[in-house]
Amino acid sequence: MGDILVITEHLKGEFQDITFEMLGKAKDLAGESGRQCVAITFGSMNGKSDELGVADSVISVGGSDDYNPESYAAAVQSVVSAKSPSLVLVGSTSMGMDIANSVATALDMPTVSYCVDVSAGSSGFSCTSSMYGGKMNVVTNVDGSALVMVLAGAFNADEGKSAESPAVEDFVAESGAGKIRFKQLIEPEAADVDITQSDILVAVGRGIGSKDDIKLAEELADILVADLACSRPLVDAGWMSKEHQVGKSGMKVKPKVYIALGISGAPEHIEGMKSSSTIIAINSDKNAPIFDVAHYGMAEDLFDVVEELVEELE
Ligand SMILES: Cc1cc2nc3c(=O)[nH]c(=O)nc-3n(C[C@H](O)[C@H](O)[C@H](O)COP(=O)(O)OP(=O)(O)OC[C@H]3O[C@@H](n4cnc5c(N)ncnc54)[C@H](O)[C@@H]3O)c2cc1C
Questions:
Q1: Residue 12's pLDDT is what?
Q2: So what's the pLDDT on residue 279?
Q3: Tens of pLDDT along 88-126?
Q4: pLDDT tens profile 5-44
Q5: Could you give the angle at which helices 302-313 and 214-223 cross, rounded to 10 degrees?
Q6: 260: Cβ below 6 Å to ligand 1?
Q7: How are the residues of the chain apportioned to helix, strand and coil, as percentages rounded to the nearest 5?
Q8: Which residues of 109-122 are buried (b: 16+ CB within 10 A; e: fewer)?
Q9: Span 165-182, average pLDDT
């Protein structure tokens, strides 16, 4: 019975959260199905394998720390060919898309995309994919070896962290040297806020009506010691900057409290905030889809509610 492989991701010497999300899930699946959970590391990241203690073991393929789609995919391909895993968990990320598609094509393996859940069955695995921006869930049953691309935010990263030290196997992988060369890491300009780390978010939607009225939401955010977030139309209109945008083409956030003001709850927005612990929605339309995911809701004019709230809290 093949193992469950997790393709780790790193940037600037740190494992990325998606690694721990996948590890936690892989460990559960391995436990349920009597398999081993094995992580693959690249470059010098084997030196940090004690951060991957949830894995039963680590395979280090070495190579460069700088991501290269050709060489990383070739290394994964070598490991998958040699170890015949049951399941390979890959992030549904820029790096994961490169690797999964390349390995799947080379080894003629099926790929399950946009996966938000996986469970072990009697003869294989059942994978749930969130399709069409969250409008539809599709279940795929996998009973042979497959690559499963996991959406960021699908699993709890804390479940993939432990203080154990897994055994590390050095694996001599194919170099995969081809036409692509790493030249430079170009980082985005530093944002004044990182909403993915906020405990409380006050999120503003098109219902706010005008750029000037955003200051009301700002007042509420100040009192609650919260950060300000928004839906995409506000960024498109130039009312707020991109680092505040939540959703499919923005940030995936998981605050303790998410207050949605005048946000309708389009699937592309929900995708980015549905994992928040408590969602409070204020929308004048009682049929707005945001109420389907909200824990608390008020079908009221946001200005009436927020003005009163600010007054009370002050
Ligand atoms: C490929 C793609 C990617 C996308 N990515 C994202 C993304 O990352 N993030 C994102 O947010 N969207 C994204 N979108 C856009 C998305 O489809 C929606 O258009 C958008 O989320 C709607 O934003 P909204 O809820 O603020 O506006 P609207 O849908 O216009 O909703 C405004 C809401 O405000 C309510 N309202 C109006 N006045 C008041 C008032 N006075 N008091 C209370 N409520 C009031 C209305 O009832 C309405 O429900 C994407 C779309 C596509 C196609």
A1: 94
A2: 98
A3: 999 999 999 999 999 999 999 999 999 999 999 888 999
A4: 999 999 999 999 899 999 999 999 999 999 999 999 999 9
A5: 30
A6: no
A7: 35, 25, 40
A8: bebbbbbbbbebee
A9: 89
DSSP for residue 162: -
Ligand 1 center from residue 233 Cα (angstroms): 6
- Count CB atoms within 10 A of the CB of residue 303: 17
Is the CB of 298 within 6 Å of ligand 1? no
Do residues 69 and 98 make contact, with C-beta atoms less than 8 angstroms apart? Answer: yes
Per-residue model confidence as pLDDT tens digits over 123-134: 899 999 988 867
Phi/psi-derived region of residue 291, left when phi > 0, alpha when psi is between -120 and 50, beta in every other case: alpha
Pairing of strands 37-41, 57-60: parallel
Rounded Cα distance, 106 and 77, in Å: 8
User: What does pTM read for this prediction?
Assistant: 0.74
- Which contacts qualify for 179-186: CB closer than 8 Å, 24 or more apart? 179/70, 180/68, 180/69, 180/70, 181/68, 182/64, 182/66, 182/67, 182/68, 185/12, 185/66
Tell me if 301 CB under 6 Å of ligand 1.
yes
For the chain, domains (ranges, CATH) are: 4-170 (3.40.50.620), 195-313 (3.40.50.1220)
Task: Report d(CA 90, CA 108) in Å as an integer.
Answer: 16
Q: Is the CB of 283 under 6 A from ligand 1?
A: yes
Q: Is 242 in the pocket of ligand 1 (CB under 6 A)?
A: no
Q: What secondary structure letter does DSSP report for 248? A: T
Please state the rounded mean pLDDT for residues 155-178. 89
- Which of 241, 284, 303 has the most ligand 1 atoms within 8 A of CB, as the residue to mutate? 284
E strands, the chain, are 4-7, 10-11, 14-15, 37-41, 57-60, 87-91, 111-120, 125-131, 136-142, 146-150, 167-170, 200-204, 227-230, 257-261, 278-282, 296-298
Residue 152 has pLDDT above 90, yes or no: no
In this prediction, residue 267 has a pLDDT band, given cuts at 50, 70 and 90, of confident
